[in-house]
Amino acid sequence: MHPFPHEEETTSVRAALRSPQRLRxxxxxxxxxxxxxxxEAISFSIIAGVDPRVGLFASFxxxxxxxxxxxxxxxxxxxxxxxxxxxxxxxxxxxxxHLLATVVLGGLIQVVLAVLGVxxxxxxxxxxxxxxxxxxxxILIFMAQLPHLVDVPWVVYPLVAVALAVIVWLPKxxxxxxxxxxxxxxxxAVTVVAAVSVPTVGDEGALPDSLPALLVPDVPWTLETLxxxxxxxxAMALVGLMESLMTAKLVDEITDTHSSxxxxxxxxxxxxxxxxxxGGMGGCAMIGQTMxxxxxxxxxxxxxxxxxxxFLLILVVVLGDLVALIPMAALVAVMIMVSVATFxxxxxxxxxxxxxxxxxxxxxxxxxxxxxxTHNLAIGVVVGVLTAxxxxxxxxxxxxxxxxxxxxxxxxxxxxxEGELFFASSNDLVGQFDYVGDPANVVVDLTAARVWDAxxxxxxxxxxxxxxxxxxxxxxxxxxGHSADRHERLAGHLGxxx
Length: 498
Known about the structure:
Elements: H1 5-11, H2 13-18, H3 20-48, H4 52-69, E1 77-78, H5 81-94, H6 96-115, H7 127-145, H8 156-173, H9 179-193, H10 223-255, H11 261-277, E2 284-285, H12 287-296, H13 302-317, H14 320-323, H15 328-342, H16 350-355, H17 358-374, H18 377-397, E3 401-405, E4 412-421, E5 441-445, E6 449-451, H19 454-469, E7 473-477, H20 481-490
Parallel strand pairs: 4-5, 4-6, 5-7
Antiparallel strand pairs: 1-2, 3-4
Helix pairs in contact: 3-4, 3-5, 3-12, 3-13, 4-11, 4-13, 5-6, 5-10, 6-10, 6-11, 7-15, 7-17, 7-18, 8-9, 8-15, 9-15, 10-11, 10-12, 10-18, 12-15, 17-18
């Protein structure tokens, strides 16, 4: 029996194929995502400094590959802005072939990291960082639409307003067809019939007229080439994995289902290797398109991911002339609604902020600020996690208590230490004993404490050394388990009691 029967029923491809209603949802979701992927892939190609075909082919191969290889059903992977920013210097300095070699190597590094268990590091990402990640993504998605609303014909604004109205109000009437798809088709029809001159998808860049072909990057297979591409490949691998695993975790929460993060990790790597050999710029999970697929269109299986890639290729290669007519206003409206739906509005309500510990709110704000400032999700998440760790260590450091325990022996004093002893808390330990006034024998009882690191053992050594300098003896008692092992192994061997 499957360990998660509800999940298998929800995300099963076989179950979706047997249900016409579910299948229609998956197919239409894939179509909407494909339409939203086109301008994004073109704009990311421009950021990376490559031909739009490179971004579009990457989106096709990433989506189709991850549909089979990924661990998170219904998540969309394609060319992304984060990857584009990382690899842009390679194209600028060394050309397209070095970029493709970087993508292949980056994918191989992701596979290695998956085998080494990098996905397990997700447990160290606090909820406050996760909320900051989601909110900063929503802000970035919204900010990415602003250039399409500046220095444009005035008619763009009412078109965006109409599209927003359709997306918001149509689901209240019917959910048979995704409202974003209706908005895109309706606005395209209106602008074509009325001959309204507005920016279109075709204005973003030339669409390909042929299928992607298998190729081997034309680079010297030497250590010098490896030296050039390795730093970019490693950065691409880390950024791509972090963004993909965070997005997978978010989709898990939205759909109330479980997914294999390890499989998602090596699946992303394998998809990037495939993408590099088909002339694509590489990629990772896309939060905006994933939200369109999962939250707006209610897709749940790999079918929608696979069809998003297939429809993308059909649209740009076969129906490129029609796709080029889609007004950007329609896609801007779709992405604005995605940003609104993605943002965790509950996290900034006054009642929530009053109830939430200040340290948690600070971690969320720091994560958002860094991501928005750098436009790099990986940097924001790392800074957020580090901030959370520092604040946690600071909070726990003050939970260690040293108190005197009454005893009948006149020549002995007993201290009980309670709490967690580690590098932050053990620094204060040395100053909490009366070295001059205590009797000849001192007992430090650690029954209610745990020793976590060498800093704590060094602090206990310092206490013993300071009493010894006064001609007094110290007995450390009460340690058990790993704490006792650690103390026995390190005590007296850390150099001068430091």
